[in-house]
Known about the structure:
This protein is mainly alpha-helical. The chain has helices at 33-37, 61-135; strands at residues 2-4, 10-12, 23-25, 28-30. The protein contains two helices and four strands, in the order ββββαα. The chain has a two-stranded antiparallel ribbon. The N and C termini lie close together (8 Å).
Amino acid sequence: MIVPRAAGGLIAIVAFAGLASAQPSGGVLRPTPDQIASAPGSSCPAFPTPPRIPNGGSARWRQMQETNAAIGAYDAAFRSALNCRTAEANRLEAQVMALQAQRIARAEEANTATGNYEATCANWNRSVSAFNERNGRSSPELVCTPPE
Length: 148
C-alpha cells in the first residue's frame, strides 16, 4: 500500500504475508502468539533437564559426588545447546536484516515508480485538458487516475 507523505513525497508500507497482524512495539514488529507457536522448531539439541539436587543437609558423600558429576554433564549439555541456539538466533537475525533491506529496497522502488506514474498521469491530464479546451469538448475517458 502506498501512502502519501505530508511533504508531497511518498512512503510505501509493505506488509509481509502473515505479519499484517503483528503489532509494532518500539519500532519493531512483534509476531502474534499464534505466529510464535507455529514457527519452525530449532535445529539445535533441546536444553537438558536439570538433575535432581539432593538435600545437602541429609545427603551422603556418594550422592553429592554423583550429583556433582550430573551437574558437570548438565552444564556441558546446557552450554552446548545455548551456544547452538545463540548461533542459530544470530543467523536468523542476519536473515531478518537481509529481508528488511529487501523490503526497504522494494518500498523505495514502489515509491519511485508511483512518483513517475503520478507525474505521467498529471502530464497526460494536462494534455487532455489542453486538447479539450482547444477543441471545445470533454473527454472523461481520457483521464488518468493515480492509484489510491
